Amino acid sequence: MIVCNLTKPEATQEQVRKTYPKLGQTDVAQLSIALVLTGKYALAHYDGETYRYPEDVNKFTKALSVTLNQIQSTVEPTKKAKAAAAEEEPVEVKVGLTCNIVEGEHVLGDRKDLMALLGDAVKNGVEYQYTATDILWQWALDRANWSTISGGELTRRVKLKAAFEDSTLGTELGVGGKVKKTRASKAVEVVEEPVPDAVVNVEEELPE
To answer: Residue 99's closest CA among 162, 44, 153?
Structure first.
């Protein structure tokens, strides 16, 4: 399994060099970039649909807002104290991710030999190491203004968590290094539970 560090691409290059020692330096660099892009532009899966970044941002956030509104409507506390507590607890939504091999192939041009190696690497399994801003879907969902998207109907705070699935492993990095490894058992799971950190809604331009 190749370890692909999205925060430090140079570390990925070293992994590729060790895995394919016969490759020239330029080919190693190209394959490393391709691997990084397969994770950075990972595909999101929800309710039987696949979403690509950035063209499906609006479509995906609207689809998620339906679920979030349903979750909110099921909470009917009988006392004001319970209502206040419910509003303080964010709703966590887990989104399944898979590597976007097509995005990686784009940078390889007509190099079918490197495309074959990229396919083999993905098939054998890739461990993506990343921070919350390295996965573009995580970046976009964390900054979505859910109140605006839902037409003002969504009042509860939302915490979205992306997790890799299938043969791919995700390791979220923190200040001190590795935090935890995640592999989704299914594409999407919605869980209501207290989460210590709140999502800050910031309206800004999405990166491309």
So the answer is: 44
Q: List Cα–Cα distances, 23 to 26, 33, 88, 98, 110, in angstroms.
A: 8, 14, 54, 26, 17
- At 186, the pLDDT band (50, 70, 90 cuts) reads very low
Q: Which residues of 181-200 are buried (b: 16+ CB within 10 A; e: fewer)?
A: ebebeebbeeeeeebeeebe
Degrees to nearest 5, angle at CA 133 with 132 and 134: 95
166 near 43, Cβ under 8 Å?
no
CA dihedral 72, 78, 82, 87 (to 10 degrees): 20
H or E, element range at 127: strand 126-130
pTM for the whole structure:
0.76
Around Cβ 204, how many Cβ atoms within 10 Å? 7
**Greatest pairwise CA separation for the chain in angstroms:** 68
Q: Are 97 and 165 in contact (CB under 8 A)?
A: yes
Give the separation between CA 58 and CA 62, rounded to whole angstroms: 6
Can you tell me the mean pLDDT for 157-165?
80
